[in-house]
Model the fold of this input.
Amino acid sequence: MRTKLTYTLEKPLKFKQQLLQWSKQFEEIAWLDSNNYHQEHGEFDALLAVGAFTAIKTDYHQAFATLQEYQQTTKDWIFGYLSYDLKNDVERLSSKNHDGLDFPDLYFFQPQKLFLLKGDQLEMHYLNMLDDEIEEDFTEISNLSINQIETGKPETENPESKIQARISKEEYLQKVEKMLAYIQRGDIYEANFCQEFFAENREIEPFKVFQDLNDLSGPPFATFLKLEEHYLLSASPERYLKKSGSKLISQPIKGTARRSQNSEEDIKIAEELSKDPKEQSENVMIVDLVRNDLSKIAKIASVNVDELCKVYSFKQVHQMISTVSAELDDGIPPVEALRATFPMGSMTGAPKISAMKIIEELEETKRGLYSGAVGYFTPNGDFDFNVVIRSILYNSAKKYVSFSVGGAITAGSKPEKEYEECLLKAAAMRHALE
Done:
């Protein structure tokens, strides 16, 4: 079904920049970039999928069943996203909050052309009907001048296009207090509470904003996704779920601390994060939730915590990450592994259903793709999906720009400190837009 050619690159980093620039001509683009961040479970340095041969987009009704049929029918590479609101397909829940973005709940496409980069090796996988274009495209990409990146239209300068918060700081603090009351009453142990920042009547050049955001953050799960008028510009540091053969890997993040330009202070901040009892408690609660979710689809006694509460450093922040693994039970389809664990524990809470109900009550914005997942399936049913955080969402038709940030609320949370953590997480997105 696909023709594959392999090339050895003289300048892989330069070619990567040329490749992203070349992709601008397509209506459907999925660019996944590890930024060469050292991670044990990475398969590729970068992937690019362009041009939809086939595609599906749907609301949450029977969304996972639709995706399973599509994945099993194509038996090919497919790229796309699961929005947070697919929770309504998994459980008897609803999403009624404000939605300025208007993204489909699920969108996947089968690319015409696919590029896989690992070290100095490039694999080009083209549908057989297009295989005569492989060498021509490679030559065109290699000859692109990366010094002439188009910046597109200038950003709109009217006052209405300024970034604003959906809720005020005072409202945020009041809502966290309400969540703490639910915790004290015993309804939940932990829940992830988020707020939206947005701009209306705002035109941006998505490639430029993505490049700025990626330069600021350099995360292992950076994503540029364009599906018609819908754009995701993501600097996500978090893996949701990966399947390799029968092995499943989930790497939830809970626990955040700022970076410092002073190296001694920076080391101290990371050490303090690693020993912070509140941050450890948040992380352990979510690890337990992930273990519980994985146990629904795993072979008996195969769920393990490979790494607990380890601190990793990124350009903007230190993060506390755990790694949980499991062996997928026999006969369970790949899509079912996603459905059984969705939405991810790090963006919901514990108990999961109660947390999602309270999140819907207290948040003002429909999450949509934020805190959902973006990734891909391989022809043999393996997959890898990130968590959509540290991300800018853009509807170019509506000229609506949005990014959301949040954090885990536990019994030990201080509302003012939680608000400060939100601003810390928002810094890179705000900087890339302003």
About this structure: The first strand starts at residue 2 and ends at 8.
